[in-house]
Amino acid sequence: MVKLNKIYTRTGDDGTTGLTDGSRVSKHSSRPQAYGTVDELNSSLGLVFLSLDKKNTKKEIEIKSLVRNIQNDLFDLGADLSTPISDETPKYKPLRISKNQVEKIEKKIDKYNNQLKPLNSFILPGGSEASSLFHISRTIARRAERDVSLLSSKEKINKYSLVYLNRLSDLLFVLSRVLNENGLNDVLWVPGLNQE
What we know:
The protein is mainly alpha-helical. It has helices spanning 30-51, 58-81, 99-113, 129-154, 159-178; strands spanning 16-18, 24-26, 123-124, 187-188. Helices cover 55% and strands 5% of the residues.
């Protein structure tokens, strides 16, 4: 259980941070970079959630619930990434992203994507406020995926942490289209539009 009585500890004043297993690493190393970007992604989804408060349609209420579930998953992911994999038996079972969490995201992608017409062009972020915010979260998810991929090239990680982020960015793209009236208000890219 997490218990925070004091917000500042001064332990990071030397540019290091503590991991879940008690070890310390530099704040700019791959592991804090990875879970820090996941934290940024989670924060961006807080804005998405607030943008969905405006209409309170059945669809928006459903997506708000989904966003809250994703935010909770992202804290699980942060805990996963902040706990190095060790050959030693841990004192406590580490929290890891599971295959089940990935499969839930896949089911949501299939559900929402079935409502959309296939694309014949790339989409410019826009159309609606909520859609635009989902695009911001999607790009942060892709950056988090790159950061976790870099971490995996240096250290052993839970493979589902990387898979989860890959699927999540796809889901955020699909949801951006759903909130553009199921793609009717998507802004399509016109290649070379301003070259002449």
